[in-house]
Design a protein that fits this description.
693 residues, alpha+beta, Transcription Termination Factor Rho, Rna-binding Domain, Chain A, Domain 1, globular
Amino acid sequence: MNIYRRCSGRARWSVLIMLSMMMVGSAVLFSADEGPFTPRDKAYYADEALVNFVRPGLRFSVVSHEIAADGTVKVRFKITDPRGLGLDRLGVTTPGNVSTSFVISRIPKASKWHQTYTKRTKTSTYAPTAGKTARQSAADSGGSYQVVAEGEYIYTFGTKLPATYEKDAAHQIQIYGNRNLSEFELGTNYATVMYDFVPQGGAVPKVRDVIGTASCNKCHVDLSFHGGSRKGMASCVQCHAPAYEDVTNVNPETGASMDMTEMTHKIHAGANLPSVIAGGRYWWVGFGNNVADFSGVHMPSDVRNCAFCHDGKAPQGDAWLKNPTRAACGSCHDDVNFATGQGHINLPQPSDNLCANCHIPEGELEFDASIKGAHTIPNRSSMLPRVIAELKSVENAKPGEKPTVNFTLKRADGSVWDIKTLNRIGLILSGPTTDYVSPTSRGYVSEDPRQVATLTGDTYRYTFNTAIPADAKGTFTIGLDGRHVVTVLEGTLKQQSVQYNIDNKVINFSVDGSAIAPRRTITSTAKCNGCHANLTFHGNNRNQIGTCIQCHNPVETDAARRPASQMPAESVDMAIMIHRIHAGNVQERNYTVYGFGNTPHNYNKVVYVGGLNNCSTCHEGTSYMVPVKGVADKRDPRGFMDPVKPATAACIGCHVSLDAASHALVNTSKLGESCGTCHGTGKTYAVDKVHAN
């Protein structure tokens, strides 16, 4: 290893290869295309000799604990790579030093929240509040390490347990940390482990497990905070607990509670908080005096959709239904004063004891005071009669002809909906499926069939006013979108009109006798709903990717809605638009789209929590890879170049910079893009490789 330390550059790599080859007889070797690495890991693509030497990755595990009579706590633990081979904490005998931190807590028998023994006093250095202090849960300090064996250690906490600690209560030790492998271009590896025990022995009597990490990862993908080393909900809830003893667990700069219940609800409710709507803000001052303002947060699944996060899969997953509390409810409904009764039908609520009496899990009607009823999302109410649409067939489908589409609109009992009673129905004609840039300059036409569609039996029949272009070839698509309005709870004080979507449908058909070729699959409604829960746009008209892409095609812009004074137009092509929306806060340029009513929508404050480098979260399969073939150029009047090539359009949707655009332009000729040369599958800078963690 000393040889390695003294070398640099190419010489160091030679030493790495030599050392890794010497290890063959003494260790389990890795290879790039076998576990434990996946295509989401940088190590998956690394040189095999380098991987065998560095053994990237990080795992912590707890072997045992010991509590002395004077309250001294020791924890015996291991630091290993993903295969279980020991790592040197100091990075001397194995590459990459490992930073470790420790937290110890208990859940008192009289409580349901963690209370940490390890604490700190945070003193604000943020200028407006400099000097303010708060006592917070924190990691241990002043501890010491003892080496047991390669990768195995004993850590002695600097914090001692009090003489009166509950020996029969649930206790928990957390170890979190990171391993710095940046010099090997393998980034920083993070790990967290939680260890539950009862000091006097026996089964752990209780845990704090209301929402599982998997629920959070529907949006967050890999839930981690504080630089990345604290991973998973169990790590979060250990420190983010209500006040106890001398611990206030507040942000000293803003006074905001750090309790997980209040903090998480308020962050996700953000822009919908009554206090924010009234002109206030919900914000924190974090590490390095970085200000985090959550006042603009809009939860993509709708903040009323409690069950999206509280999905019932955790051991205490029904707590939100069975144990309502002032802290939980008051965090979103922060205009309620439980002490005075203001905002609570003038009823003071001095404790949580009687909350469940009125706020039962579910009542007889939606929109009532029950927990599910009070959080009913109007357009997802079970009282709304479904409009079940199906596209059956297309006739007169040759070039130059006006196509006729046969479709049904039914109720749940199979009876026919009267099309004229529906709030809106649109039939969208577009094609070809390679890129949807025909049959008009906008790439599609949408027509309303309600007044002229004829009904035979249970099937409606409508002939478009627009003809298929005379030079059309390949496969075209007809889509159906729409919405309906229904009054629910009529005659009661809860009466309201609800506008809701009709599930969109598409049907593909050949215009020239060739085999039907549906549009390539880039993403799916299910992928979007992994975070959005119920994807609906344009006044609840659009809710399926299949119809979204008909209109959001390569030639479509917001020109029809954008005021003349704000020209040129902005692209709303699906690839450009979706990438730019989700990359909102990291863009160098302004991205504002004008919509219905000539209303501007600015997306530069959007923060995508799933990780912009994690393409597979949204993309199906390997659809994010290049090259892109057979797809039309895209209009981008406000972009760095117009028109823009298809692969370039997608990439500079996230990499919104002049440098990135210039790089793409330099590598484009009259023959097309050369992206695949460097960024294609298996290439040095392949898309999946450069986006790996």
